[in-house]
Hints:
Blueprint: E1 22-30, E2 34-35, E3 51-55, H1 63-66, E4 73-77, E5 82-86, H2 90-99, E6 104-105, E7 115-122, E8 129-131, E9 134-137, H3 142-172, H4 174-177, H5 185-210, H6 218-221, H7 226-235, H8 238-295
Parallel strand pairs: 7-9
Antiparallel strand pairs: 1-5, 1-7, 2-6, 3-4, 4-5, 8-9
Helix pairs in contact: 3-5, 3-7, 3-8, 5-8
Amino acid sequence: MTDESNSISTAAVASPSSHGQASFRAQAVLAGTGIDLAALGSTDRTGAAPLAVELIGSLTGGSLAAHTAAGGGVAFLFRYGAVVFFDAAPAGITEYLRQIGPHIRQPFPQVERETEVLDIRLDPAGKETIERNTLVLADGSLHKLQLVADIMAKSVSLAHHEKGIERQFERIEPFAVNLDHWGRGGRAARELLHNLGVALLAEHRVVAGTRVDDSPELLWDHPELERLWARLRDEFEIRERFAALHSKLSLISRTAETALELLQNRRALRVEWAIVGLIVFEIALTLVQWALGVGH
């Protein structure tokens, strides 16, 4: 494998073998919270388009390798931290992620990385569809692989945020059951602020970073691929998962904001009572002094 990422051309990176069909595997990995694509040579990209690179020497020896000009697999890198590999061996994936490690922001430990696998079969005579966990394509053009990579990258990003938000949801859920628990001291306020911050950060990364609800810019130039992308989006339930995640994020935000308002109101009430107490004490002290003065 080369030490640097080399951009690949827009030519087809795979085509059916002489027997009419070819098969390889796609694997998506969420390596961190972001990837510095500019440092990896991404100078000809537009917008949120991924960076496509060739992986020399990382192949399984499958059909895809036999039909690439350089004899290597393909990877698509997304700025929000996802990398999608096509026909790469596990050792090759690990090595490539190690090589780009310095350019990954807040890398996740290997055991915490979200991954997803999809088998792909090229069949020019077949219908482009998904059979169980196998995607059937008429050809393996770069544009089609980019659409597959887009959906798989969004899927692993959603999976990561779903787990994180679920943990936050479980922490903040008791507030709906027992309001008094959240009204004791500053620790509750700090915990609520932490949960609110986590929810807002996750929402920012999903909406602004991953752009889960947006169509890839590739479809502007290739509208004929829109049906394939829509089929993949439905198969991975991207819209439904995003809607569920957004609902949980909104609930966490509203719950934390409500709790903070209650805490602030309680503190304001305590301050008011303290002020009233000081006034009463001042009046009582004045009356005592006046009474003692009258006595003399």
